[in-house]
Amino acid sequence: MLFVERILALAAAAVVATCLGVGMMLLAFSPPRPGGPFAAFTGPLDMASARQIVETEIAQTPEYARFFARLRETFTTDYESTLKDFATRLADTKTEQSVDYYLSEAVRRLRQSRGALAAKAEPDAMARVFTKQLEVLQAVAREDKKMCVAFLYGATNQDFQRFAAARRPLIAAMATAGLDAMANGKAKNIAREQPNEADFKALEQALKARGLGQTEIDALLDGKMPDPPLDDAKMCAAGQTYLEVLRTLPEASRTRIYGLALELMAKS
Asked: Which is nearest to 184 in space by CA: 107, 129, 256?
């Protein structure tokens, strides 16, 4: 594929890296947790009481509580608007959401409002985002290859919700890595060029050296899915290889590709 065409494909979010982690952050609404703080509350629900319920639910999940504390510290207005919306929804609907939903929705909102800042972060801060995504992808792959492929392309289902809820430390670490990159990008504001043709050639060569064929590479970088599609095990393995290989590229190429992927995540 020509360089200009590849950039257009990336801009259309065809590259797998733009979807990694996004699927996890689009969890469906879940029913209230039995015995949660809402269960003990009766009568009309005002905003102050609703917010207390939400904050109590978050506080009872230490892994997620640390993310929300970091959010409050770094992007206070985002934290306040997010908690206000959670409380408003609870007061209006009297339907409590799971703490996993609260994390996923907070991350989704943050990516929309601040996500582009991550592309301006220092190399180590950007690299941690993709390292944590790889760790989640590897854990998903051990669980279910079909779910792994769905995660690659941003799709989730009830099985993935159960997976995420059972591995909250891992999920929280991925969310926090993104938040930290945004905070770092805000502070450092590093301007980066778009990836160039040499960057993509280096990436393709590295993927081929790891045993990927052109079909897998086209599916990863250009969104070209063969007919019939690759089987789940092969596509899942290719996605993991993609993230592993990115870490081996020269820093200049790696950070340019990371930066573009993070920009696209913010727009996805």
From this structure: 129
Residues 6+ apart with CB under 8 A from 138: 240
- How many whole angstroms separate alpha carbon 79 and alpha carbon 83? 6
Please write the tens of the pLDDT for every residue from 206-228: 999 999 999 888 888 777 777 88
CB 156 within 8 Å of CB 19: no
Which residues, at least 6 apart from 78, have a Cβ–Cβ distance to it below 8 Å?
71, 109, 110, 113, 114
Q: Are 164 and 171 in contact (CB under 8 A)?
A: yes
Q: Is 35 exposed, middle or buried (0-12, 13-18, 19+ CB in 10 A)?
A: exposed
Separation CA 203–CA 158 (nearest Å)? 34
Handedness of CA 153, 157, 109, 57 (dihedral sign): negative
Output the pTM of the full model. 0.86
Are the beta carbons of 174 and 181 closer than 8 angstroms?
no
User: What is the per-residue burial (b if ≥16 Cβ within 10 Å, else e) of 36-49?
Assistant: bbbeeeeeebeeeb
How far is Cα 56 from Cα 38, in angstroms, rounded to an integer? Answer: 9
Give the three-class secondary structure for 31. Answer: coil
User: How large is the average pLDDT for residues 52-71?
Assistant: 96
Residue 39 is given by DSSP the state G
- Distance in angstroms (rounded) separating the CA atoms of residues 150 and 235: 10
Q: What are phi and psi of 170, to 5 degrees?
A: -65, -45
3 CB-near residues (< 8 Å, 6+ apart): 196, 197, 200
Contact predicate 134/244, CB 8 Å: yes
